[in-house]
Amino acid sequence: MSTIAAQQLQDFIARTLAAVDLPPADAAAVAELMTRADLIGADGHGVFRLPQYVRRIRNKGINVRPNIRVVGEKAAMALVDGDNGMGHLVMRFAAQTAIAKAKTAGVAWVGVNRSNHAGPASLYASMPLAHDMAGLYLAVGNANHLPPWGGIDMLLSTNPLAVAIPTQDEPPIVLDMATTVAAYGKVKTKAQRGEIMPEGWMIDRQGKPLTDPKRADEGFLVPIGGYKGYGLALVIGLLAGTLNGAAMARETIDFNKDEVTVTNTGQAIVTIDIAAFGPVPEFKRKVDDVARQMRASARLPGVERIWLPGEQSHAKRAERSAKGIPLPAPLRAQLDQLASDLKIAPLS
Fold first, then answer.
1. Distances from the Cα of 293 to the Cαs of 279, 286, 290, 298, 319, in angstroms?
2. Structural contact between residues 90 and 67, judged by C-beta atoms closer than 8 angstroms
3. Among 1.10.287.1120, 3.40.1280.10, 3.30.1370.60, 1.10.443.10, what is the CATH number of 66-180+223-309?
4. Architecture per CATH, 1-58+317-348
5. Domain ranges of the chain
6. Which of 110, 136, 191, 288 is the most buried (most CB within 10 A)?
7. How does residue 316 score in pLDDT terms, banded at 50, 70 and 90?
8. How far is Cα 2 from Cα 13, in angstroms, rounded to an integer?
9. 110-151 pLDDT, tens per residue?
C-alpha cells in the first residue's frame, strides 16, 4: 500500500479527464471532488472510479460538453437537467442552485435528472455548511443490488442518504449512509484487494451468507434494518428518481457492466437556512452541546469511544491531508496503465 499526496492525486485525475476531452475547468472541478472523496475515506468513490469514468467517456456514455440547466422551477424548488454530464458537475450545479434559493426562500429542494454517478453523498450534503445551512442529499444508485423485502428480483439500488448539520467548534454532523448494510463500492474495493467481505453484507439467492466479493453477482446486498431498509430505499428512489423523471427500478442502468447506455441518474438536494429558525450562533452552540453529551455518555464494556456521524471522516481527512492518500497496489497498477494508455504523465 503506497501513499500519494492529495494535490498530486488531484492533478493526475485532472489531466486524465482532460485527456479524454473534458474542458480543463470541468476536469479540475471533478478532480477536486474525487480527491475530497479519497481524503474522507470514501475509497470506493474517489480515484478508484477513475478508470470506469474514462471507459464510459470514451464509449460516449457520458457527455463531456453538457448543457446543465434548470428546466423547471418555483420559489423554493428547481428541476435540473444534467444533460448526461459528469455527475460531480451536475450535483455541484444543483447544490449551488439550492443554496441560492434557500437564501431567499429559507429552504429549497432541487431535483436532478439525466445525471451520472457523483461520488459520496456527503460531498453535496456538506456544501451548504459553508453558508450556515443544513443539507440533505438523496440519490438513486447506479446499479440495482437490492430486491424488495422477501424477493429476489433486483429492483432497487443502495439509494444513499446524507445529512449535514453545521456546528460551532465541533466537527460538522455529517451522516452518509447507504440503505444497505454496505455500499456496493465497498464490495468492489474488497474484490480488487482480494479481501473477504464480512458476513451480513450480502446473501445469496437461498438467503445464505455470501462473503466472496468476486461472487457478488450470485447474490444481493442486505438492507439496513431488514424491511425498514427496503422501505427507505424505495421512498428515496421515488423522490430522487421517479419525481424527477429519472431512472428507477427496472429502468436503472448497471453502470458497472454497461459503459455505453445513458444512465439517467436521479438525485436531489435540500438546503435549509438555519437563520430562518433563529440566531445561527445559538443553534451551532446547541449542536456542539448535543455532540459533547453524546461523546461523553456512558459506554458499554470494551467501547473506547462514542463517535458522532462524520467524526471519523473528519479525522481521516486530517490524517490523509498530512500523510497522503493510500493506494492499494492493484489500483496503482490500474492508474499507471491508464496513464500509459492515454499517454499522460503517471503518478509520481
1. 22, 11, 5, 10, 25
2. no
3. 3.30.1370.60
4. Orthogonal Bundle (1.10)
5. 1-58+317-348, 66-180+223-309
6. 110
7. very high
8. 17
9. 999 999 999 999 999 999 999 999 999 999 999 999 999 999
- DSSP label at residue 248: -
DSSP 3-state of 107: strand
Query: Which residues have C-beta within 8 Å of that of residue 217, sequence separation ≥ 6?
Result: none
CA–CA gap between residue 145 and residue 119 (Å, rounded): 17
DSSP string, 3-65: EE-HHHHHHHHHHHHHHTT--HHHHHHHHHHHHHHHHTT-TTSSGGGHHHHHHHHHTT-S-SS
The residue type found at 223 is P
Report the distance separating Cα 335 and Cα 330, nearest Å.
9
Q: Which residues have a Cβ under 8 Å from the Cβ of 140 and sit 6 or more positions away?
A: 157, 159, 236, 237, 240, 241, 246, 247, 248, 252, 265, 266, 267
- Report yes or no: 136 and 127 within 8 Å, Cβ to Cβ: no
Radius of gyration of the chain (CA): 20
174 forms beta bridges with 164
DSSP state of 333: H
- Residue type, position 142, single letter: N
Model pLDDT for residues 267-313, shown as the tens digit of each residue: 999 999 999 999 999 999 999 999 999 999 999 999 999 999 999 99
Q: Which amino acid is present at 341? A: D
Q: What residues have CB less than 8 Å from 235, skipping those under 6 apart?
A: none
Q: Is the pTM of this model over 0.85?
A: yes
- β-sheet bridge partners, residue 135: 164, 271
Q: Which residue, chain included where needed, has cell 434557500?
A: 102
Using the structure block, give the residue that is written with the C-alpha cell 478508470: 51
